[in-house]
Amino acid sequence: MTSTIEWHERLRKTIPWGSSTCSKAPSLLPEEPAVIVKGKGCRVWDADGNEYIDFRNGLGPVTLGYQFPEVDEAIRDQLGSGIIFGHAHPLEAEVAELLCELVPCAEQARFLKTGGEAIAAAIRIARTYTGRDRIIQIGYNGWVNSLSGSGQSLPGQAASGKAVPGVPNAVGELHHAAPWNDIAALERWFDHCGSEIAAVVIAADYASMADGKTFYPAVRELTRKHGALLIYDEIVTGFRIAIGGVQQYFGVQPDLAVFSKGMANGMPLSAYVGSKDVMKACDRGGTVISSTFGGETLSLAASKATMTVYKEQDVVGHLWRQGEHLWGGLNGLFDRYEVPLELKGFWPCPTFTLKTGASPSVREQFMRLAYRNGVSLYNVSYVNYSHKDADITEALERMELACKQLAEARAK
User: Fold this and answer.
1) Which H helix or E strand runs over 153?
2) In this structure, which of 148, 252, 324, 340 has its CB flanked by the most CB atoms within 10 Å?
3) Looking at residue 166, what is its pLDDT?
4) Listed residues 290, 312, 334: the one ending a domain
5) Within 13 Å and on the Cβ side, how many CA atoms surround 199?
């Protein structure tokens, strides 16, 4: 098989960024693998045969584990009957019913393929329902909606503040970025143009997600006061911090919500859900949102199987327990070896943060050494349901080697 570096060079020749997904293009070569060719449970292998205990999980969608038996069996069974048809398939109804059962705000649901386009659909519904144009966005809501010059161009990466390349100024001027957990900033926007705001879209801040306890109720009250809709981006938080995401965890319901990562264990599927009253804005006579592949059956079969596992087994509890075991243990290693890094946030989806005064290069150095010792990480890293106790113990042993090596390098 061609080596991982040769694959990297080959990808760069024909694909901008070297990957169709920006965050999958390696930035830490040669330690980081350029391509992954296989996953099983909680481990992945690159083209050179190197094994990694994986905490990237496809950048979040793999919540149960690679080749999870119930999901793979559901896909194979459906493959024998067909992938897509010229009419709706019963799985559309079955999966929509499951979502409406599991997600607090969901009275109706529709399907697309990616989180970004589902957020775009929710924004269009909000504009149709309210008759307003302006959108306030908090956090990263996918490339389709990185429209504000002061918003996030990629997860955790603020835009330049200038016009976004490829976005007409007239469009960008209708999208406004606001900080997480800053109700005063939102109030200023509503004081300035409240009668023009269709919706506030929130993707939780990973490191400070606990602030949602007071922030979500305050935003809910503010949007109701001004007649704007509240949209939750549950692409990361759904099926992770709770089955129903932040709305279930914090007990504050939005008008619309979007789910994707986690609902089909890696198969391409997203859903936009909400109350019947709001969702009627995309029914006949409303805004047209339509995609040939929205009812593709293999992804729907995977989603039905995935959500059934969530219902019958304590997947979310496992993610919290194993996350605390792993990330709490790693924070202890950082303290012991005086590595100025810390995992902050909720245990199912914490983020690597620099301690005060630390150089950004420390994070890169640690990540490189983690790869070298067979652990695959990302800025926001996740455990999945296939990470058993032995896997967590082994991962901590490997990352302790990385901490030792980093401490020795910093001491020179």
Assistant:
1) strand 152-154
2) 148
3) 84
4) 312
5) 26
Residue among 406, 332, 329 at smallest CA distance from 364: 406
- Report CA torsion sign: 272, 275, 278, 281: positive
Q: How far apart are CA 244 and CA 102, in angstroms?
A: 6
Structure tokens at 14: 């024909």
Q: What total number of domains does the chain contain? A: 2
Is the domain of 78 the same as that of 169?
A: yes
User: In terms of domains, do 118 and 36 share one?
Assistant: no
Handedness of CA 350, 352, 354, 360 (dihedral sign): negative
Same domain for 326 and 250 = no
- Provide the token pair at 259: 């789910």
Q: What is the pLDDT of residue 1?
A: 41
Provide the CA 260 distance to its chain's centre, in angstroms.
8
Give the list of residues 6+ apart from residue 186 with CB closer than 8 angstroms, or none: 136, 178, 200, 219, 222
> Which range marks the domain in which residue 53 is found?
4-67+314-411
In tens, the pLDDT along 75-130 reads 999 999 999 999 999 999 999 999 999 999 999 999 999 999 999 999 999 999 99
Question: Which of 87, 72, 86 has the alpha carbon at shortest distance from 265?
Answer: 72
Shared domain for 60 and 151, answered yes or no, is: no
What is the distance of C-alpha 90 from the center of its chain? 28
Instruction: Say if residue 242 is in the same domain as residue 213.
Output: yes
**Which uninterrupted H or E stretch holds 302?**
helix 297-312
Residue 258 CA to residue 197 CA, distance in Å, equals 19
Q: Are strands 351-354 and 341-344 parallel, antiparallel or unpaired?
A: antiparallel
Backbone φ and ψ for 41, nearest 5 degrees, come out as: 65, -110
Same domain, 210 and 282: yes
Q: What number of other Cβ atoms are within 10 A of residue 133's Cβ?
A: 14
pTM, entire model: 0.94
Residue matched to tokens 């690597």: 352
CATH number of the domain residue 237 falls in: 3.40.640.10
**Residue written as tokens 């981006």?**
233
286 and 322 both lie in a single domain? no
Q: What are phi and psi of 35, to 5 degrees?
A: -140, 150
3-state secondary structure of 364: helix
Residues 6+ apart with CB under 8 A from 4: 33, 34, 35, 46, 47, 48
